[in-house]
Amino acid sequence: MLPGDRRDDRERTGLVRLLKQKQNRISLVVLDMAGTTVADDGLVEQAFDAAARRLGVEPGTPDHAEKLAYVRATMGESKISVFRHLFGEEARAQEANAAFEEAYGQLVAAGQCAPVPGAREAIERLRGEGRGVVLTTGFARVTQEAILAALGWGEGLVDLTLCPGDVGGRGRPYPDMVLAALLRTRAADAVAQVAVAGDTSYDMLTGSRAGAGMVAGVLTGAHEEGALRAAGATHVLGSVAELPDAVAEYELRATETES
């Protein structure tokens, strides 16, 4: 082999390594809000109680217990979808949803809203590493904006915020918000370069159905590790504060595996 051939081989090897690093890079991170980046502390259930009362379902009754169990099981799903299941008629579902959003907004306005410890720092680190970050929710836009305002998470903290109404009305467990985040930010070249993080099984289903390379469950919200893994979690973390390190480790292992 001539010296020039060896140099060409080294250059090709270096190019292949760079291409693998780019392919395995997480370029876009899609984060849930309540229970993941925003502490819930029972706010969803309190707001549900208000919505249930509005429609004549009183706490302490078997009907209330049955409906609350469904709310807990479907944490993460678009709230209007939940109320359509619970109350059937569209008018009643819309009334319940409006009452829920109103009650949740009042709780937020009363100061019962706080970030998960380390959440803002995690977002800032991820963006500082050149990754796009998008916040998603199953709430309506007005509630999402109230939460962001209460936390002081104004324009510039993340690249984009999305709710089901922004993507045609289909929230979790459909992949629509994740795919919309990819298309609108153009932060990643492929779904494999996307990480999705959330606290519910519906978050995990959303990430899996979108084809995300990394689907991370966090234990600061509604569902436990078993439910998260059963729904497709590739990673389970104590909280979103651990996500930047987990992303870095994922990239390193993926590149080493292909070397």
UniProtKB/TrEMBL annotation:
It holds the Pfam family Hydrolase. InterPro entries: HAD-like_hydrolase_sf, HAD-like_sf, HAD_sf, PhnX-like. It comes from Streptomyces morookaense (Streptoverticillium morookaense). GO terms for cellular component: cytosol. This is Phosphonatase-like hydrolase. GO terms for biological process: DNA repair. The keyword Hydrolase applies. Keywords: Hydrolase. GO terms for molecular function: phosphoglycolate phosphatase activity.
